Amino acid sequence: MFRNPDTYLLYEYMEKLSFTARIKVCLDDTVDRKLLKDAAQEAISRFPYFSVKIGLDEGQNYILEHNDNPIAVIPEKDMRLTLGSDDVNGHLFAITYRDNCIWFNFSHAPCGGTGALFWVKTTLYQYMVKKYGSIEPPKDIKLPGTPVTEGEMYYPDADKLPDDEPISRYTGGDTNLHLGRTLKYLLNPFVKDNYYYQIEIPAKDFMDYAKKIDGSPNTILTAFMFKVSSRLFKEKKDTFLSGRIAADYRNEIGADLSYRDFVRFIHVKYEWSMKDESIQKLNMRARGPAIAQNLPELGVERFKKLEKVHREIDEQPNLKAKKKYASQNSTFRSDPRDTYTISYVGQVDWGGMDAHIKGVYSITDGDLMLEVNVIRDAFCISYQLINKDPKPLELFCEELKKEGVPYSVSERFARYLPKIKFPS
Q1: pLDDT at res. 268
Q2: Pairing outcome for strands 369-374 and 195-202
Q3: How do residues 12-51 score in pLDDT, each as one tens digit?
Q4: Which pLDDT score, from 0 to 100, does residue 192 have?
Q5: Structure confidence at residue 424 as a pLDDT band (50, 70, 90)
Q6: Which residue, 394, 342, 379, is CA-closest to 200?
């Protein structure tokens, strides 16, 4: 039976749903193209599981074949890359640069943000050592020439994981208020009006605020975004507003060190009657669902569901049937619908590279979505929207001001998420 877990998300790809991402790193100096190109080739050699191209076997299963071509390091342009194409040497990973910024572009099939950071950190480290000399490396860096570990490659056997029933489950259901806003986007996510803003909050100020109201970055931002949503959407009878928090469950299935993507969502339901409550109280309301849904049994259950779909994709007779089955049984698309999403990577060890990094921003799919990264001095938030209307951003900034949280905000940027070219 065909069993490469890195390929299954590829079956869900369509022109309307790409499953690609970008990580933008802003440095304190203009990017040196030659040094970056050399560093990129050294770094990708450490990650054979990323140095691949898409193939199709006799059973019409997607496969990932080793790709000997250099990884593409090309100027950033105001247009989308096509991963898997000749323009990027067939790779599903590619690097672009402009001025003082580097964009790490990748398919979401092999990995999510956690796994992609393996590659990002190694590339940046190789680059900075060439440019600045000796730099303290992050403790978890994977340097060229070091072996790929069993932990990195580990993928659980679903049949050997327990079947314990979770103590509690989310029962809030779907919130459909957002559908009208996103209908146009769902029909074509590659329209030009697809944007993000970079918000920077000083790390000390944000953590001091978190301690003051007994919150975490996830629950605080969930509360802020409820305030935004309650002013953005019109109240309707028998409706509610809810947020989702991305939760990494690799620890729950014993895959702590794996490069692969293991993400599920924690849902926080708010009633309209709560819209005038304080951020502190709304934060406390978010903590309860976060604790109740942060159960190892739910991570195991999610993984078993994912593996069941994978096996059933394998059983389909041809590629068209596999793609149809994958789209109709997607674990992501079957999740409850929420109004907004918070995705916080958590603390990341950048070692001595911190001194040269001004900001790190994740660029992904979604609307009213906050992608959050942390560097030494700042929380870097990518506030993602589907159109040019700045009102959601303005409402968010108003709430920050009310709470006395300092911030700065960038101009509007287009996302330019990559497409993928598949073998014919």
Answers
A1: 97
A2: unpaired
A3: 987 667 799 999 999 999 999 999 999 999 999 999 999 9
A4: 56
A5: confident
A6: 379
Beta carbons within 10 angstroms of residue 395's beta carbon: 17
Q: Where are the alpha helices (DSSP H) in 172-254?
A: 179-187, 203-212, 217-232
**Whether the predicted pLDDT of 181 surpasses 90:** no
d(CA 183, CA 319) in angstroms, rounded, equals 28
What number of other Cβ atoms are within 10 A of residue 155's Cβ?
16
pLDDT in tens, 224-239: 999 999 999 999 999 9
Q: What is the DSSP string of 23-68?
A: EEEEESS---HHHHHHHHHHHHTT-TTTSEEEEE-TTS-EEEEE--
Mean pLDDT of 95-105: 98
The rounded distance, in Å, linking the Cα atoms of 294 and 288 is 10
In this predicted structure, what is the pLDDT of residue 97? 98
Tokens of 100: 């003082």
Tokens of 95: 């690097």
Specify the amino acid at residue 134: S
Q: Which of 362, 349, 259 is nearest to 46 (CA)?
A: 259
The label of the residue with tokens 């489950």 reads 169
Contact status, residue 384 vs residue 196, Cβ threshold 8 Å: yes
- Rounded to whole angstroms, the Cα distance separating 299 from 289 reads 15
Residue 1: what pLDDT?
Answer: 45
Question: Which residues lie closer than 8 Å to 244 by C-beta, 6 or more apart?
Answer: 265, 266, 267, 268, 335, 336, 338, 340, 341, 342
pLDDT greater than 80 at residue 133? yes
Radius of gyration for the alpha carbons in the chain, expressed in angstroms and rounded:
21
Which H helix or E strand runs over 103? strand 101-107
Residue 420 amino acid letter: I
> What are the DSSP E strand ranges found in 273-331?
none
CA pair distance 311, 8, nearest whole angstrom: 10
Output the pLDDT for position 334. Answer: 83
Token pair, residue 309, equals: 């779909």
